[in-house]
Design a protein that fits this description.
CATH class of the domain at 14-136: Alpha Beta
CATH superfamily of the domain at 14-136: Gcn5-related N-acetyltransferase (GNAT)
Distance between the termini: 38 Å
Structural class: alpha+beta
Helix content: 25-40%
Oligomer: single chain
Radius of gyration: 16 Å
Strand order of the largest sheet: 1-2-3-4-5-6-8-7
């Protein structure tokens, strides 16, 4: 597992006005453990709150390990506190595309523009540094806060995966969205 300190300067850190995206470092698993599992947030990820696995330090450590073993992936840090994670994945190098996944784990930090700032940092990295042509994502239709964030960051709705997620016996659509480099670099 790759851990870094405050002196991180090798380009894996993306800094915004209040948000820093960085690799994991010592103490992140304990910080993530302290946040716990919020059932409302889990539901927005498409996880049935009734089926959440018990929260433990081991699960929090696994969360940090997954981020450490995925490149590019970041801890979302605000005021030197862990608030979530983000990653680009599913790279198609031939077509210059990738998918974005992001999630805030701290319910107290929702609605503060943190997600919007993190998405903007990632898009800038994806298009300017990595030279991608397209970044796509999927978002559960009931996650209206996230959809507003993505639209504010310039993502456009491209389609719907009908009844793609079953939560507690009810089916929900996934909204398919993407942003192109040409729209970001204007």
């Amino acid at each position: 597992m790759r851990l870094v300190g405050e002196e991180e300067t090798d380009g894996r850190v993306l800094r915004g006005e209040t948000v820093t995206l960085r690799p994991p470092r010592a103490g992140d698993a304990e910080a993530r453990f302290a946040l716990g599992q919020d059932p409302t947030i889990a539901r927005m990820y498409g996880i049935d709150p009734a089926k959440l696995k018990p929260w433990s330090r081991e699960v929090a450590m696994d969360w940090v390990t997954r981020i450490s073993n995925h490149d590019p992936a970041w801890i979302i840090d605000v005021d030197d506190q862990v608030v979530g994670d983000a990653r680009l994945h599913g790279f198609d190098t031939f077509n210059g595309s990738a998918s974005l996944a992001i999630g805030l784990a701290d319910p107290a930090r929702l609605g503060q523009g943190i997600g919007r700032q993190a998405v903007a940092l990632i898009l800038d990295h994806a298009f300017r540094t990595l030279g991608l042509h397209r970044v796509a994502l999927r978002c559960l239709e009931i996650n209206t806060r996230a959809i507003r964030c993505y639209e504010a960051c310039g993502f456009r709705r491209e389609g719907v995966a009908r009844e793609a997620v079953n939560l507690g016996g009810q089916w929900y659509d996934d909204i398919l969205m993407a942003k192109l480099a040409q729209d970001h670099l204007r």
